């Protein structure tokens, strides 16, 4: 199960994609404090890059993005520690450490699942390097101890998520929509948004089933809903301003990503995205990303580097 050290891969380079929730309904609060939900989730072609260094003598993380923790609180670092601990329990093999380098393009605290994606990517990379000591289900259970979005970001294909996000049903989307994603320059605490969320005040009447999620472009834009928007807009009015800017510049639909702070708008094509960006008055430190839904079956490329 353990890689041959004489011919071992010393480093792996991996892509760690962002995700969006095209539909997010909160159903109920659970006794454990979490919330049951139903959500249509899809990856984007916006990704971080992760390099795993297997010659390290300890677990550590480095990141080029300001403010990202570079210690054991980083989710990628926690993922490596969790994996190596479970590896020792299962196989008896002790590995001294993993160096994790994150080249970040996904803004943290933007509702795009960057931390969960880094977690999933590290777990997938380690399982590959050590020749798959853990089954997919075992790896998913490790990821769930760190974040509810991790199972989806291991599979990396459109899916309907239920429970707290851990139960997934693959969903076939028929069109890779062009998106303009705007990050307003500040992060949002997921915990603070859920804490303020009041299920009784949720106004959305939209309901959906799996057949609805399979519809093409016009169907998807009509499904767009996020029960967390009202809370986030009240806490951070600038997020509502971002959504209005997208709608005012021709978006066929716009929605806050996850618990915020970023917002995405759906457009006809890449040219429409470019035109919309030019027409939005750039203020403060808004960041613009031209991206698309990644609707192909889940796939991760393991690139060996010197």
Top keywords for this entry?
disordered N terminus; Alpha-Beta Plaits; 2 domains; 306 residues; alpha+beta; Ribosomal Protein S5, domain 2
Give the secondary structure arrangement, pairings included.
Layout: E1 11-29, E2 35-53, E3 60-63, H1 75-91, E4 99-103, H2 114-129, H3 136-144, H4 150-155, E5 159-163, E6 167-170, E7 178-183, H5 190-196, H6 210-213, H7 217-223, E8 225-226, H8 229-235, H9 237-248, E9 253-256, E10 263-267, H10 270-279, E11 287-294, E12 303-305
Parallel strand pairs: 1-8, 3-4
Antiparallel strand pairs: 1-2, 1-12, 2-4, 2-5, 2-11, 5-6, 7-10, 7-11, 9-10
Helix pairs in contact: 1-2, 8-9
Fold and architecture overview:
The chain is α+β, with helices and mostly antiparallel strands. The protein folds into two domains: 11-171 and 296-305, 2-Layer Sandwich (Ribosomal Protein S5, domain 2); 178-294, Alpha-Beta Plaits. Helix content is 31%, strand content 27%. The chain is built from ten helices and twelve strands. The chain has helices at residues 75-91, 114-129, 136-144, 150-155, 190-196, 210-213, 217-223, 229-235, 237-248, 270-279; strands at residues 11-29, 35-53, 60-63, 99-103, 159-163, 167-170, 178-183, 225-226, 253-256, 263-267, 287-294, 303-305. Strands 1, 2, 3, 4, 5, 6, 7, 8, 9, 10, 11 and 12 form a twelve-stranded mixed sheet that branches. Strand 1 and strand 2 form a beta hairpin. Helix 1 runs parallel beside helix 2 (114-129) and helix 8 (229-235) packs across helix 9. The longest helix is centred in the first third of the chain and has 17 residues, at 75-91. The protein is globular, with a radius of gyration of 20 Å. The protein starts with 10 loop residues before the first strand and ends with a strand. 41% of the residues are buried. Residues 1-7 and 214-218 have low confidence and may be disordered.
């Amino acid at each position: 199960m353990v890689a041959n050290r004489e011919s071992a891969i010393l480093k792996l380079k991996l892509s760690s994609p962002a995700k969006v929730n095209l539909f997010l309904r909160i159903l109920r609060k659970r006794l454990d404090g979490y919330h049951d939900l139903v959500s249509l989730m899809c990856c984007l072609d916006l990704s971080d890059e992760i390099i795993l260094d297997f010659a390290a003598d300890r677990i550590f993380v480095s990141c080029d993005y300001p403010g990202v923790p570079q210690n054991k609180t980083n989710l990628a670092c926690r993922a490596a520690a969790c994996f190596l601990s479970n590896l020792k329990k299962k196989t008896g093999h002790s590995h001294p450490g993993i160096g994790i380098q994150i080249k970040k393009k996904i803004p943290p605290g933007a509702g795009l699942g960057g931390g969960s994606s880094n977690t999933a990517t590290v777990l997938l990379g380690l399982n590959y390097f050590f020749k798959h000591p853990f089954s997919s289900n075992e790896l998913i259970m490790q990821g769930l101890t760190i974040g509810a979005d991790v199972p989806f970001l291991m599979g990396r294909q459109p899916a309907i998520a239920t429970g707290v996000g851990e139960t997934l049903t693959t969903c076939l989307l028929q069109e890779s929509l062009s998106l303009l994603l705007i990050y307003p320059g500040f992060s949002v605490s997921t915990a603070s948004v859920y804490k303020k969320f009041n299920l009784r005040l949720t106004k959305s009447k939209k309901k959906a089933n799996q057949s609805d999620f399979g519809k093409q472009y016009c169907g998807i834009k009509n499904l767009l809903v996020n029960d967390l928007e009202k809370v986030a807009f009240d806490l951070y009015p600038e997020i509502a301003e971002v959504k209005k800017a997208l709608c005012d510049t021709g978006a066929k639909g716009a929605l806050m990503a996850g618990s915020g702070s970023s917002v995405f708008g759906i457009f006809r094509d890449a040219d429409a995205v470019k035109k919309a960006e030019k027409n939005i008055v750039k203020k403060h430190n808004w960041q613009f990303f031209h991206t698309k839904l990644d609707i192909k079956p889940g796939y991760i490329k393991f690139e060996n580097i010197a």
